[in-house]
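re the bet — no i am not wrong, look at it urself. input seq straight from the record:
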Amino acid sequence: MTQEQQRRNVLVVDDELPMRAALEANFRRHGWNVDTSAGPHDAVRKFCATMHPLVITDIHMPDGDGLSFMRQVQSIAPHTAVILLTAYANVSEAVHAMKNGACDYLVKPISFEHLQAGVERIMTRRGMQALGQDGDIVGHSPALLNAIARARQVAATDADILVEAESGTGKELLARLIHKTSRRCKQSLVAVNCAAVPEHLLESELFGHVRGAFTGATVSKAGKFEQAHGGTLLLDEVGEMPLALQPKLLRALQEREFDRLGDTHPVKVNIRVIATTNRSLRQMVADGRFRADLYYRLNVIPLSLPPLRERREDIPDLAYHFARKYMVPGRSAPRLSSEFLACLERYDWPGNVRELANFMQRVMALCSDPVVGPEFLDSLLSAEIGSKQDDNAELRPGVSLRDAERRLLEVTLRATDGNRTRAAEMLGVSLRTVRNKIRDYGLPRRSYA
């Protein structure tokens, strides 16, 4: 099931068959995937199997009451939206329900038009129509929703955008959201990671080359600028752009025109540029490591994304999102216990959403129980935190800067299982710098592939 389909899942719980059928037909007409249940006992099983973002339930049923079922849903997935239905209007019951987390309280016979309008309003407010892996950002926190709203607003323009945020926060996902909601959405979004391409190849990667431009150039090749014609060019980690190449990039951005390597005939393109960085380009300009004129040309519309520690209320949503994504085929997604989720929310996640995703992937690989309890934190996350605390204990007064830097690099490489690219992102430096440091400090290369 796709991400979009998952966001349109609703569970309808009512002991009256005609009402269930009417609700099911209404939601299917509006493009929802509908599961139904005649009572809370069966509904809990179905909810745990699918984790519906929306639940519609009657309050008074022979098999149990909807208020108790709502509390069970909230303990399993705190940010699922629950709408309560009843045939008996009761003011005190309605107040109690809304105070305890119900999104709406409707008296039968209900207006399906009113119900549908309320559903769309609730789901939009909770951020359920915003993005995961295929261009979707998961969460409902005000900080995140404000960033998404601003991104959607500027998507309507053709202005260049600079996204400055920490590694692992979802900068590329935000760029893809902007492209997806812009008038260029039918054309390509072409991405190039400025930190991953060797310096001597980056110019050709961006601007292309003609046959014979350099040794080995046996055929002409279009660069990323040319490939993005009519669409969007994503310059990922633009802070790693070599100083020598920055003037040519500046000209290409200003004129929307460039020369292929080895060619004297300029190529004109119609593109929108989104640049991302995990560094402060303003500080890099002050340090002489980034051209001021290029910075001002990129920074037409500045955007940012909050780190995960500043939107902790999104952690349960993200944990369930990754639990479903990484669950072992053939198994149902397990329930995440409240103790487990509380510990996740207390942790600072220095690697942001990417670190949480990797952690949940480990949990899903090791968990065969229907409930994920705090024991998985003891064996995984707690050990990780303990390791960091032990490592920090060695950073004491008198330790040389070189030894501290070497130790930090070793700790980061160990935390990323030797993944140099991930280590570079966490340290806020280029992949090239990590490679050089590994060589300079004589660290074993095979351990850090």
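see?? The chain has three domains: 3-125, 142-303, 311-448. told u. also The CA atoms of residues 59 and 65 lie 5 Å apart. so pay up
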